[in-house]
Amino acid sequence: MSFFLSSEQYSDLRYSTDLCDEEIEFREKRKAIVFEAMKKTLGDQGPQTMDEVRYFIGNLQKLCIALHTS
Q1: Which residues of 32-47 are buried (b: 16+ CB within 10 A; e: fewer)?
Q2: DSSP letter at 19?
Q3: pLDDT of residue 6
Q4: Which residue, of 7, 21, 57, 68, has the greatest Cβ tally within 10 A?
């Protein structure tokens, strides 16, 4: 068995948790779309601001997991 070690200048792997500008922009656009869809679907029970979207999604995920495991 043999191993070959090479060092390349560019890599496809990300070595930090920082997001690139394109990914940040994508997430903000997606958040706005999800916010509007949740407002339309849930009405007054949905998120009142875009900042609340991730909390609603987290709670919906917990509910889905609870329903799936019961």
Answers
A1: eebbeebbeeeeeebb
A2: P
A3: 62
A4: 57
* Phi, psi for residue 49 in degrees, rounded to 5: -135, 160
CA–centroid distance for 58 within its chain: 10
pLDDT tens digit sequence for 6-49: 666 666 666 677 888 898 898 889 889 888 988 898 899 888 98
**Structure tokens of 42?**
């849930």
Round to whole Å and give the CA distance between 53 and 49. Answer: 7
Selection from 51, 59, 60 nearest residue 31 by Cα: 51
